[in-house]
Write a structure and sequence with these properties.
By secondary structure, the protein is mainly alpha-helical. It has one domain. 65% of the residues lie in helices and 0% in strands. It contains 2 helices and no strands. The chain is rod-shaped, with a radius of gyration of 22 Å. It starts with 21 loop residues before the first helix and ends in a 9-residue tail after the last helix.
Length: 107
């Protein structure tokens, strides 16, 4: 890392390993945290809504429609879980980099 001059904020100095300043890294980390919370909220809502539907339906068409809706909910939930894993992985990398680490964080 380049030494800051007397008038330079340490957070604004770019690390030679990164294209981003420490401040920019922290801002991105906060965005990822907010996105993680949004994904978690969407997942909770999806599963709450799926659990709220009554199990007894009048006819086969209603059951087929419900099954199709549940399939869609499960596919969307699977995508949300994958996104959540990617966000968690990125946050682990941010934590390591901001703590001064130099190696890659594995899955």
């Amino acid at each position: 890392m380049k030494a800051p001059s007397a008038s330079t904020n340490v957070d604004d100095v770019r690390d030679e390993r990164s294209e981003l300043t420490a401040r920019e890294l922290r801002e991105l980390e906060q965005l990822l945290i907010a996105e993680r919370e949004a994904v978690q909220a969407r997942l909770r809502l999806r599963f709450e809504n799926a659990a709220d539907h009554p199990a007894s339906l009048a006819d086969d068409l209603d059951q087929a429609s419900k099954d199709q809706d549940q399939g869609l909910v499960l596919r969307l939930a699977d995508k949300e879980f994958k996104l959540l894993r990617e966000i968690e992985h990125a946050l682990a990398k941010f934590s390591y980099v901001l703590a001064g680490g130099r190696r890659e964080v594995g899955l």
